[in-house]
Amino acid sequence: AAAALGRALIGTLLLGAVKDDAETVQVHFAGNGPLGQITTIASGRGLVKGFVGNPLCDLPLSANQMTNVGAAVGSGLMSVVRNHSNWAQPYTGSIPIFSGEIAEDFAHYLAESEQMKTAIGIGVTFTRKASVQSAHGFLVQILPFCSEETILKLEENIKKMPSLSDTTVDRSAYSIIENILMDIGIGDTYNLGSPMYGPCNPKDLKDRMLRAVASLGSEDIKRLLQEQ
After folding, report:
1. Separation between Cα atoms, residue 208 and residue 205, nearest integer Å
2. In CA terms, which of 46, 68, 146, 147 is 20 to 30 Å from 55?
3. CB-count exposure of residue 75 (10 Å: 0-12, 13-18, 19+)
């Protein structure tokens, strides 16, 4: 359960990171596996939260001694809802769950529903006592002007990367970027953020309330003021 939720949280954060800071993205896996459903929500500012239907789900390792997330999730439907306070309606996209391994499902969704060429990797590591040690991932978006030579080099670099679930290698954000962009070059402009559970602090709650009020019509706002 922890591996599946960790992957889903990271994947949802990555989806939110490539859009506007004020946009929120909600991901829902409705699988028929013993894990039950997974729901995660994140903002472009790095706020994230989520839950699973059966947090006690603990399947045996797969044949290659990896966490068997695909079997825990099962088959079903993956849905993504993007929303913004300036939009009249949220954008919703749904596809059949591709493998249940989460990262592959996110990549398949981006290709099928948002026509976005991407490479995505997600990993969750555990201590010897089976508690979560770290969770990390990457999302590379291929832009239209990207050369074929650069695309081939990206594919080569990603194939050479150690598993994101390997606890013996450096998995800092910068080291992942270095591995992906080896012999391509890292630009001078980048930023690092710190994901947080949220929204849970006063400023975020205030911003959320202001966005909710802004979405109301003038008559509704007048009525609420009169009632108070």
Report:
1. 5
2. 46
3. middle
Specify the amino acid at residue 23.
Answer: E
Which tens digit of pLDDT belongs to each residue from 45-70? Answer: 888 999 999 999 988 877 776 788 99
Tell me which residue has tokens 């962009």: 181
Cα-based angle 119, 170, 175 (whole degrees, multiple of 5):
50
Q: pTM value?
A: 0.79
* Domains of the chain: residue spans and CATH: 2-197 (3.55.30.10), 204-228 (no CATH)
Contacts of 102 (CB under 8 A, 6+ apart): 4, 7, 8, 11, 29, 69, 73, 122
